[in-house]
């Protein structure tokens, strides 16, 4: 079983007559153009829903999601089994749950573009898994299945679509495991005897019409065939001014931590499907499903009203549509289908706000508010179109300002709140991190939170309005606005933080330009270096790659570490370093390393010690053309995912296993997540492989650590996961890495 150790336990719009919310933490409130409003009005006639299911952030087919949500205008969602916590980070040093927090926000940004809704289960991405049974066992299959059923029973999809099959064609265990969960959830969600504990929270059994596999063709894997059911998804949407391919690329490009920036595409495009369960479709995923108001008793009148609204819509005066939208809303209150009543009420309410040009913002004077302090919030409303909008009451956590105000056209109305924060107010923590997690899943005690992508806002202002006589209740999340003079506005959540510093607890902040600021709290943990650790040399040059914490580990070992960039790679500068260590994915993200190859090899030849950590041969960089070592070798997709896999010493007398520290098999105890990734292959006898290892049922791999003596120096490439093991405080990893970076031409340091 996988064992996960951490340095620190790692961290609607409108709803009239219920709630109207203008929430968008990563961006400013979006005001639809008249064309976008008209596009959304047309959606009022469509009653269809689709749920896409896969394993991770980035697995989703943004082209198909955009097609379903924007072209067909179905109620569309994406259920990611995990938050992508176990992957690699191309933009920074965050790993584990912190990476999962980043990828969660990237998914939310993607959904804002392609029109889908985002859901998750409690499963933790524990890292690459080669076997379906391993993934399901570590996740605790029944828990993840229950979560998928919960999402299905709430979302009520007509059709479920998976990204992957259940067999080896899926690529690895998480992928195939997601398909197993989806299929079993399709059945269990409809079974009144399964997960009956969910019923007290307002859901009931739900039978989707069918479940399909969306076959794919990428890389060397092509699972599509012309005899499969297929649909065209390359449409151009004039009201949006974009094709599906353009929307999909923009959506996928939000996955910056994975280097998934994508080029826009235009023209025809085809998606393929294979039937899995349920009523078989012949020509289209939605065969046999009524997508009109005919599926709801009393819906005919609504359909006619929408047609009339579309015909009369004036893009120069969208506020003229409000009366007809209010009439549609009143008709919606007469239908008996609670599910579609809620969804279409939300859509109508959003349109009323957009047509009125109503802008609401609630801005805090602080991004972080301490327990016991006072938060100042400035609420501002602007009725930009001049529609008939009145304020009745605004309130924030029981502080009420009663007003009877007619909002003037394009004039700001402002109310300031001073909100005392209780000393006992709980610090803001992502809901899935509140309780201590298990190896493969998060412990979430509140059933109603399961499936949610993120926390509900900590602070919200309640605004009671009437728009042309119709009552509206708005919940406006409080945000902090930061203005960067070079870029512009950024909006962030407001977090509650402890009033006093707690040395058992550490606050972790994550800041990137493309997502809102993130924060979580975790138990502090001090790393203790193994007793008697030996090194040689004093000064290491660290050539920064995609981001890791290895340089910090080197400093803990007593080295002076100097970060190196392109302009630092010249002979005179390199002479001062006892070793050069290359960060993870450095050759993927720094194409200029190719032109520095001769200088680096000269450094090695003259007695230097160069250690290159893993790079990937995927699309994230031109690795195939890069020169890395003194003699050619390739980087494979080979990896050892079982962190307790047996490690065999090919030559126990090899210097790397004996100087300055004696390495034994005990040094491979307690490793986390994996042994290593992206091993070397295709290397000649000029290189020496130090270890062999294999995952269950596979042949030995030799490329986890290769070394070549070159001139007076030494070159090393390693795919061993030091970038995980060192921050996690794995003692054996420190001892082995000390051997790699310790130049045998230098004097032995005192034991630490």
Report what the structure shows:
The chain has about 750 residues and is of the alpha/beta class. It folds into 3 domains: about 50-290, Rossmann fold (3-Layer(aba) Sandwich); about 360-525, no CATH class; about 540-740, Class I glutamine amidotransferase (GATase) domain (Rossmann fold). It is built from 16 helices and 35 strands. Strands 1, 13, 15, 16, 17, 18, 19, 20 and 21 form a 9-stranded mixed beta sheet that branches. Helix 3 links the parallel strand 3 and strand 4. Helix 2 (about 60-70) crosses helix 7 and helix 4 (about 130-140) crosses helix 6.
Termini separation: 33 Å
DSSP helix count?
16
**Biggest sheet layout:** 9 strands, mixed
Helix content: 10-25%
Shape: globular
From the structure above, extract its key features.
seven-stranded mixed beta sheet; disordered N terminus; Rossmann fold; globular; 16 helices; nine-stranded mixed beta sheet; 752 residues; alpha/beta; single chain
Short characterization:
The chain is of the alpha/beta class.
How are the secondary structure elements laid out?
Blueprint: E1 20-21, H1 34-43, E2 49-54, H2 62-71, E3 75-80, H3 96-114, E4 117-120, H4 132-139, H5 141-155, E5 159-162, H6 173-188, E6 210-215, E7 217-218, E8 221-222, E9 229-232, E10 236-237, E11 242-243, H7 244-252, E12 270-278, H8 300-312, H9 322-332, H10 338-356, E13 358-364, E14 368-370, E15 374-383, E16 389-396, E17 399-406, E18 412-420, E19 460-467, E20 470-484, E21 488-493, E22 495-497, E23 505-510, E24 518-523, E25 539-543, H11 550-556, E26 560-564, H12 571-574, E27 579-582, H13 586-589, H14 597-605, E28 609-612, E29 634-635, E30 647-649, E31 680-681, E32 688-689, E33 691-693, E34 705-710, E35 713-718, H15 722-725, H16 731-741
Parallel strand pairs: 1-20, 2-3, 2-5, 3-4, 5-6, 13-20, 14-22, 25-26, 25-27, 27-28, 28-35
Antiparallel strand pairs: 6-12, 7-8, 9-12, 10-11, 13-15, 15-18, 16-17, 16-19, 19-20, 20-21, 23-24, 29-31, 30-33, 32-34, 34-35
Helix pairs in contact: 1-10, 2-7, 3-7, 4-6, 5-6, 8-9, 9-10
